[in-house]
Amino acid sequence: MTTPDSTNLTGKKVLVVDDEKFVRELIKIKLGRSGLAVTETTNGLEAVEMAQSLKPDIILMDVMMPKMNGFEACEKLKSMLATAGIPIVMLTARGEQTNLEKGLSLGATDYMSKPFSPQKLAELVIAILQRSS
After folding, report:
1. Are 55 and 13 in contact (CB under 8 A)?
2. What domain count does the chain have?
3. Within a domain: residue 18?
4. Which domain holds residue 64?
């Protein structure tokens, strides 16, 4: 399978929000190879604060996190004018249909269940960024 062309995405900002260091590092390495600038944090509360100042082009967010879960953070981000237009991809081990529907109803752009393929995630991120460019 070929990777979508990512040459026009160099420097686009990605905010990765996950309380698991291994997951953040895996995403950072894979997306960094595509020329994307990756910033990371460990909880939803920090994600909301960082998104307002960083203005990322996309947010990849886990659901189950301390301080503020991904659903709450997604809802908060979508309710604020400065961050409402940022695409959010929910990442979670909780892949049940009800969680998928909840994330999408709160404004998430897409949803990927863990464990995920780093290649598939990169392809999804690049496709979303290309659509929103």
Report:
1. yes
2. 1
3. yes
4. 9-132
